Structures are given as structure tokens and as C-alpha cells.
Amino acid sequence: MDHPSAAGPATCPAADGAPALFTWEFATDPYPAYAWLREHSPVHRTELPSGVEAWLVTRYEDARQALADSRLSKNPAHHAGPAHAKGKTGIPGERKAELMTHLLNIDPPDHTRLRRLVSKAFTPRRVAGFAPRVQELTDRLIDRFAESGEADLIHDLAFPLPIYAICDLLGVPPEDQDDFRDWAGMMIRHGGGPRGGVARSVKKMRGYLAELIHRKREEPGDDLISGLIRASDHGEHLTENEAAAMAFILLFAGFETTVNLIGNGVYALLRNPGERERLQRSLDAGEEELLETGIEELLRYDGPVELATWRFATEPLTLGGQSIEAGDPVLVVLAAADRDPDRFPDPDTLDLARRDNQHLGYGHGIHYCLGAPLARLEGRTALATLLNRLPDLRLAVEPTDLRWRGGLIMRGLRTLPVQFTPECAAPETDASSTL
Predict the structure, then answer these.
(1) What is the pLDDT of residues 1-20, one digit of tens each?
(2) Residues 6+ apart with CB under 8 A from 129
(3) pTM, to two decimals
(4) C-alpha dihedral over 24, 271, 379, 352, to 10 degrees?
(5) What's the burial of 6, exposed, middle or buried (CB within 10 Å: 0-12/13-18/19+)?
(6) What is the secondary structure of 331-361 as a DSSP string?
């Protein structure tokens, strides 16, 4: 992901009756504003809170076209303005930390080469083999709060689960994983505020990754970083900077999307009790089909990624009837496209059994999210385990008391306080065991 620009109380300038964008009120429920844009200004030029001007693409067909259009580059060098050099686009600190050469910032042929190398770690077989570990992590995290009758599902489950999972895949030793959790937490906490804290965390993570790559060269293991070091494709090996950048972006992009998938997904189920009960009955009967289609519907309905990461026009082009100049930034609004009534019947209704659900929650084209299979696995496991173990799970606050993290790219709750009937202590369960 590219790190979000801060949202704040001030509204961005509105023109021709356009709704105010990127306010705190907008962050709580952006869908009415996106509906207005789809109807009246589907490719809409606006000033972002950072001061950068960009085009927002909101209709499904335009979004699919933009996501697969080779004239829209991921390389910030194509931006006509100096915003990236000033840290207004992309992840704060990534340039100084020499972490730019990752999949979100490059185009073919480098993108093709690096994606082919790293995709070996995310084959269906490898992800399926990781399922028992994801279940173990999920159970141990729930063990920590199941007897208390209350929890913050963001802090206690949605956040730590993907952090520990991706650390395991990367080969981060257990004794170092809490450091990664701290750095990742800094990135999320500063999503709507000063970017300096993020840049400091990026710098610390870069230093650690350099050291870890060094150690893996000496003592390789059966993990992703060791695989990146060994990887070659037609004689082309990853440089150390490329290996560090790939490990960094897999952690950075791979955890927050899953935090939000779990958090937004549980919240959507709690706000739609009929669908939640439908899923619970299906799980009680030992059926998996509704869980499978349900994850896709939750990704469509209120997905973890609100806007696709930055693209920059390499030449003049027309999109949705609008003329876009070379160098212009383009942001595809996945959340708007996935509620387009021209593509999805009754798009504002949560229907866990929805068919033909070709949502854009994880993108489209060559930049389709590499870690989507792992995120789906973690999302399915977390939701099914919560509903099985805590069947009377309920919100502990009014929905109006919840706050969404201000930002541009990601969409997720700051907290999700819940209550439930406490589980009885199980003698064989050691809730304090090391994850």
C-alpha cells in the first residue's frame, strides 16, 4: 500500500455541488459521496488533503480499465509534480530508506521479474499448507480474551494475527516479532496524523531487514526471505535492496489489508444480524460455501482498501470521458466501483451468498494483490473461529461511537469493542503461551 495522507476536519474544496471529501464525517461513511461522484462526476479531479491534485475514478468499468491500463504507471518518476520527493505520495521514508524497488512502485519488465520471483511464496499449495498455523494463531489470540467477556477485536485479534503470520512467512525469529508489531502499530496509529512517526518506523524496519538478510545468507531457512535471497529467474538475482524492499512491502501491505478485512468484516456482520445468523447457521452445519462467498461479499461491501495505490499517466489519455494529461496522478476508488449499481444489483445490501461477485477489492490486472490468498485465509479463519467460539458476540458501544482511521488508501476502524458470554477456562489451554 501507499501510506494514506491525513484526513482532517477541514473539507476539500467542492465544486458544482460535489460533496465534501476526506473529512472525518466522510471517513465514517464515504458511500453516499461516492454515489454522487459515480452519477455526476465519475472521473473527478480534486485536491487531496496533502495538497496534491489527482483524478478519482469511481465507476466499475472505468476502474477496471484504469487498473489494467499500461499508460497509468506505478512509478512515481512519472508524476509531473514534486509531491513524491516531498513525501506527499507513497510510504513516508521509503525513498531515504532505499525501499523504493517494490511491486507497488515499478512497471514491467522489472515488475514482471520481481513478481515472478516472490509469487512462488504465495502459491495455493503453500498458502493451504499455512492454514494450520493461521488457525493456531487465531485460537491462541482468542484464548487471551475469551474468558473475560469483552475485547477490542482490532487490538486483540485483527491487528496481531496478520503481523505474526507474515513474520512467520518472512522468517522473522519469534523473539523479534514484537518489534515488528510495534513498528506496524506506529504505521497504523499515524495513518491520520504526522507522517514522521511512520518514517522513523520505516527506518528502523529497514535497518532490521538488512541485518536479517545478512543472517539469512549465512543460515538460510525455509522462509520467504531465504527464498528471496536464493531466488533467481533466468540468471537474474535479487539485489539486497530489492530483497529488503520486497520483504518490507509484503509486511507493510500484507498486514493492514487483513486488519481491515477482519475488522470491517466483523463490524458488517454485527450491523447486519440477519446475514450474521445465516452464516452462523451455515458454520454450525459444517458447511463452508457461505463462508467462501461471504468473504468475497465483505471485500466488496466495505473492503479494506478504499483507493488503489497511486498511478501516474505516462501520456495523455481519455478515461470516463475525461482528458487526463501526462504526469497526472490517478486514484481508482475501489470502494466506489464495488458499489456501482450498473455492475452489482442492490449494491448497498450485504448478501453473503452473492454470485458473480467480481469485485475489485484486491485490484485487477498485473498489480492484483499478491497476498490475497493469504488474506482470504486469515479472514475466513478469524470470522469462522469468532462465530464458533463466541456465538453471542455483540458491539459494546453504539456505532456512532466508533472511529475510522483517517486516511486516503486504507479503510479501517481504530477500535472495535465487543462483548460476549465468557468461555469457561479449558485446562489444556495456555493462553499465555508464545505465539
Answers:
(1) 444 333 443 444 455 678 99
(2) none
(3) 0.88
(4) -120
(5) middle
(6) EE-HHHHTT-TTTSSSTTS--TT--S----T
